[in-house]
Amino acid sequence: MKMKKYFFILMGMLLLTSCKDDTGDFTLNFKALYDGEPLVMLEALEYTNYDINILESDFYISDITLIKGDERVELAAIDFVDFSSNNFSIDRAEEGIDFNYLEVPVGTYDGLEFSIGVQPEENGMLPNAFESNNPLSNSGNYWSAWDSYIFAKLAGNYRGDDGNLSETWFFHTGTDPLLRTFTVDKEIIIDPSESSSVSISMEHKVLFQDGGDYFDIETNSINHDPTNLAPLEMIVNNYISSFTFD
Amino acid sequence: MTNGCKEEPIDNSISLTSIEYNPTEFLPDVPEEFPLLEIPEDNPLTSDGIRLGQHLFFDPILSADSTMSCASCHLPEAGFTDQLAFSTGIDGVAGERSSMSLVNSGFSFNGLFWDGRIQSLETQALLPVEDPIELHHDWQEVIPALRNLPLYQELFRKAFGISTTSEITKELAAKAIAQYERVLISGNSNFDKFLRFEYFFSEEESNGFAMFFDKDPEIIDAECFHCHSASLFTDNSFRNNGLDEVTDLAEFSDLGRGAVTGNPLDNGKFRVPTLRNITLTAPYMHDGRFQTLEEVIDHYDSGGHFAPNRDPLIYELGLTDTEKQNLLAFLHTLVDTSYLSKEYITNPFK
Fold first, then answer.
1. pLDDT bucket at B175, cuts 50 / 70 / 90
2. Could you tell me where in chain B the CATH 1.10.760.10 domains are found?
């Protein structure tokens, strides 16, 4: 009887060990920068010939996938990068936001891919289709007039006539044509003995690049017009160039 | 000096096993457009659980002087508010914020109260009984009183299958109240009927609807839907909607959400309340500063007062009087009092 008991304990331990050997943990970290410095919400930022601050910067990432040749290992279908809540101090800004993916199949991957925004299938669904722990359940991030989630929100203030950072600017992106995909072209090793990670820095000033110049926030401070996608297209394309990784 | 004899605790508990326990799952009538109603595994909805919660909700036995119940500050006919800027407890002491509507509170997944300090209805239901500015009682006194009453002996037995009165606890009482609150579902307004093609908007209501939801590029966007998103007419978020002018985030007289999270960016932010039954729940805002919906609309039209974390969606809109009237007409379509005819919701002592 005792032998039988030990046999089962041994088998259980072997099973656990073998499971652990097959998988490892991976962390994807996002940091927000402005002009190369950690971005702290509401701090005055030198823009062009006027100052701005940033109060909101958040966006969905979807189809977060490790790539190995033709093989794709999905880490998560959707996540929400919320600098708006996170970056209230320099420490938090330097730390960034971690997404931890557990029990990822071991291996050497060619890179990582994710989209900025929501995949068309989920974007065709309403927030009430998702459980409350799913970022897509947030009805405040759904725009019924566009039949789309708001993929990314950027907002803040610019210096007004009173000399204060008191005038509002905001840009919301969304709709299927504005989904963009970013690839981290870097070898990623998933090892059971140690957690691996990729850190992505997002340079916010790049988001407003318009050709060789910067978009004039002061004269185009709000964009809510679904028929005028040009400025938003510029911003979503800039998301791709705003990312660097290590 | 004691006499040396150890006193045996007196077992006053009464067996309840003669009372039938036959729980029936309660399936709430959740409108199709609503989010999923997530029910805790350890507190499933049953008809008897809701019935117990309903009795506790309306029973002044929960207050120290037996004059107030939960319903005193959450009147069903007032959209489950008390229509006061600041609710007053049994000692006549006013609270610091107005009572929030409990309608559709089962869908509040981002914290309860104006500052979101409590996560679940079960936890929330424990608090008002002992709050000195609310019912100012003590659960240690409430529970023996409940155990002694045949009505509650039966209701607790039927709700939770307990075997003796000693098993009646504040945790079970809170669970029952939470069950009751979870079924306070309002989703049968003219707006809902419009979605079901059972009601047609007037021109005013239709224009207000377009303004509210930014449905028509030809009609001004009032930016309402971002925070008061359908179908709950709240996104359950916390925002600074420009009520108070401050230049420093530490200056807010009521820190609101910031006092809970410790994040200075949350200072002066409050929960976005539902607009369902909004015409029944004046005065408005966490401190009841606006007496009418007209004042509320004027506030948003003005862009509110500056604070560094004022929500970016609060800016000067420039609405005409007609546009304001249209918006008001639409808000009136969100009234639904049909739940007042549901037996499991109304005062069981009447």
1. very high
2. 47-186, 190-332
ipTM for the predicted complex? 0.86
Q: Could you tell me if A154 and A235 are in contact, meaning their C-beta atoms sit under 8 angstroms apart?
A: yes
d(CA A46, CA B339): 55
Q: Which residues contact A4 (CB under 8 A, 6 or more apart)?
A: none
Query: What is the rounded average pLDDT of the residues A43-51?
Result: 92
Say whether residue B318 is in contact with chain A using an 8 A CB cutoff: no
Contact by Cβ (8 Å): B122, B175: yes
Q: Which fold has domain B190-332?
A: Cytochrome Bc1 Complex; Chain D, domain 2 (1.10.760)
Residues of A in contact with B227 (CB under 8 A): 140
Distance CA A103, CA A105 (A): 6
Put simply, the answer to whether A88 touches B226 (Cβ < 8 Å) is no
E-state strands within A83-126: 97-105, 107-109, 111-116
Which residue is closest to B106 within chain A, CA to CA?
A132
Is it the case that residue A68 has pLDDT exceeding 70?
yes
**Nearest C-alpha of chain B: how many angstroms from A109?**
37
pLDDT for residue B214:
87
Contacts of A132 in chain B (CB under 8 A): 35-36, 38, 109
**CA-based angle B10:B13:B15, to the nearest 5?**
145
CATH class of B47-186: mainly alpha
